[in-house]
């Protein structure tokens, strides 16, 4: 019996598997996975020793815990087709838009369920994963789950009513930050800095700034003030950003993403 089985091995599931193996939390041979893309499974098998399953039932039968990592539109069919096999089993899910109450409509009461929302920076070990507080995990299973996703970055637990807005922030904001990095680099390229260097400077600056906010616990406004000398160049840039509506643009982006109609 494997410690963790994967249903679906796309980019996120691969990041979870490789992150857990590289951190030493799991050994590749302690995992098993199924995906219709056999070449994907072959590659991961060669890279970390993960076992290849022949079907979804094969994963369920041979795993202590199962991680569902398929496209959201495929979840309902998988749950319906494997409802009986999932009885008395533990199912973790990273499928977007699927939370505890929605899963509960399709699965037997004996199935333990927990929804997790990771984001793409998990692929480089700097992810933000949100665990839904409403779940059926035993204390031992919760420890395993938190340690699994801690191998990919930071972990936060949120109540069900906050999963949507929390997932919007951590899940969508990487795209907006990438746009910021691109724009910062463009501004430097305009004045002659080579683009590859501009991207390195901008990305490391964003990474370091985020780490300062997280690790110091200081208010981001205070950290901003510390960089702004009176009459200096940074405060001039702050003024330009305020005139350009940076804050309201970010808030509007959150609003637009969170309120997207189903």
TrEMBL record:
Gene3D superfamilies per record: NAD(P)-binding Rossmann-like Domain, ProC C-terminal domain-like
EC number: 1.5.1.2
A family per Pfam: F420_oxidored
Main location as per UniProt: cytoplasm
Keyword Mitochondrion: no
Pyrroline-5-carboxylate reductase catalytic N-terminal domain segment(s): 3-97
Occurrences of domain Pyrroline-5-carboxylate reductase dimerisation (ranges): 162-260
UniProtKB keywords: Amino-acid biosynthesis, Cytoplasm, NADP, Oxidoreductase, Proline biosynthesis
Localisation: Cytoplasm
GO MF entry, a single one: pyrroline-5-carboxylate reductase activity
Pathway: Amino-acid biosynthesis; L-proline biosynthesis; L-proline from L-glutamate 5-semialdehyde: step 1/1
PROSITE patterns: P5CR
Reaction catalysis annotation: L-proline + NADP(+) = (S)-1-pyrroline-5-carboxylate + NADPH + 2 H(+); L-proline + NAD(+) = (S)-1-pyrroline-5-carboxylate + NADH + 2 H(+)
UniProt similarity note: Belongs to the pyrroline-5-carboxylate reductase family.
PANTHER family xref list: PYRROLINE-5-CARBOXYLATE REDUCTASE, PYRROLINE-5-CARBOXYLATE REDUCTASE 3
Role according to the record: Catalyzes the reduction of 1-pyrroline-5-carboxylate (PCA) to L-proline.
Name of this chain's protein: Pyrroline-5-carboxylate reductase
């Amino acid at each position: 019996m494997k410690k963790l089985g994967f249903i679906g091995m796309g980019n996120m599931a691969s990041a979870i598997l490789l992150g857990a193996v590289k951190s030493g939390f799991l050994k590749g041979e302690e995992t098993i996975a199924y995906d219709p893309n056999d070449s994907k499974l072959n590659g991961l098998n060669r890279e970390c020793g993960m076992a290849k399953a022949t079907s979804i039932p094969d994963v369920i039968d041979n795993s202590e815990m199962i991680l569902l990592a398929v496209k959201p539109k495929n979840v309902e069919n998988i749950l319906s087709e494997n409802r009986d096999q999932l009885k008395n089993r533990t199912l973790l899910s990273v499928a977007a838009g699927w939370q505890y109450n929605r899963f509960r409509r399709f699965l037997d009461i004996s199935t333990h369920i927990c929804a997790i929302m990771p984001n793409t920076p998990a692929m480089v070990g700097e992810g933000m994963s949100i665990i839904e507080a409403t779940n059926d995990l035993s204390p031992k299973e919760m420890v395993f789950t938190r340690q699994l996703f801690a191998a990919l970055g930071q972990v936060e637990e949120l109540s069900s009513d906050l999963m949507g807005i929390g997932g919007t922030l951590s899940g969508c904001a990487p795209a907006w930050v990438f746009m910021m990095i691109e724009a910062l680099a463009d501004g430097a390229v305009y004045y002659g800095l080579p683009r590859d260097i501009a991207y390195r400077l901008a990305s490391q600056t964003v990474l370091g700034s985020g780490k300062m906010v997280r690790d110091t616990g200081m208010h981001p406004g205070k950290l901003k003030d510390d960089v702004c000398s009176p009459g200096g160049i940074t405060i001039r840039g702050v003024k330009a950003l305020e005139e350009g509506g940076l804050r309201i643009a970010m808030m509007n982006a959150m609003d637009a993403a969170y309120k997207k109609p189903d």
